[in-house]
Amino acid sequence: MRIKSHPAISSPREGLNLLSVSPSEADHHALTVILSTEGWKIHRAKTFWQAKELLTEKPFMLVVCDQDLPSYTWRDVLGKVSVIVKQPVFIVTSQTADDQLWSEAVNLGTYHILAKPFDPVEVKQIVSMAWLNWKYQHEYGKPKVRAASG
């Protein structure tokens, strides 16, 4: 069954770059399957260093980063994202998504937390709203929408 998107939150069908940062190939695959029909090109990084390299090579609208990376955390990736002139919107993924993570993530400026395993409807909704936030922020200089916190 195909879920219809509301026209106000639809994304264009091409030119959308998302960086998926996770040591889990299953996470990368799930995001690719869920978002490929929405026009997103998923770029994969398994480590902080791969993410850092990709962030310097091309512009991204969204970064979806696992809570735990080998030798680093999502906070390290967020630090690299925060110095980019045209900052991507940052989303953290987590198996636990507990209150402590929610509090820390929101206070540090992330957009949302996605619980794993990924729910396709939730992923599409959050990514669509995050894209609108990125678009509005870069067109008008401020965020328009914000995901609800946990």
Q: Could you characterize the architecture of this molecule?
A:
The chain is an alpha/beta fold and 150 residues long. It has one domain: Response regulator (Rossmann fold), CATH 3.40.50.2300. It is built from five helices and seven strands, in the order βαβαβββαβαβα. It has helices at 25-35, 48-57, 74-81, 99-107, 120-140; strands spanning 16-21, 40-45, 62-66, 68-69, 72-73, 89-94, 112-115. β1, α1 and β2 form a beta-alpha-beta unit. α2 (48-57) runs parallel beside α3 (74-81). It is globular, with a radius of gyration of 14 Å.
Secondary structure elements and pairings:
Layout: E1 16-21, H1 25-35, E2 40-45, H2 48-57, E3 62-66, E4 68-69, E5 72-73, H3 74-81, E6 89-94, H4 99-107, E7 112-115, H5 120-140
Parallel strand pairs: 1-2, 1-3, 3-6, 6-7
Antiparallel strand pairs: 4-5
Name a few traits of the molecule.
disordered N terminus; 5 helices; 150 residues; alpha/beta; two-stranded antiparallel sheet; 5-stranded parallel sheet; Rossmann fold
Q: Determine the fraction of residues in helical runs and give it as a percent range.
A: 25-40%
CATH architecture classification name = 3-Layer(aba) Sandwich
What's the average pLDDT? 86
**CATH homologous superfamily caption:** Response regulator
Question: What letter string, H or E per element, gives the SSE order?
Answer: EHEHEEEHEHEH
Order of strands in the sheet with the most strands? 2-1-3-6-7
Query: What is the CA-atom radius of gyration, in angstroms?
Result: 14 Å
CATH topology term: Rossmann fold
Total helices: the number is 5
Distance between the termini: 28 Å
Estimate what percentage of residues fall within beta strands: 15-25%
SS content category: alpha/beta
- The backbone outline, from C-alpha atoms, is globular
Biggest pleated-sheet summary: 5 strands, parallel
Low-confidence stretches: 1-13
Q: How many domain units?
A: 1
What's the CATH class label? Alpha Beta
| Strand element count | 7
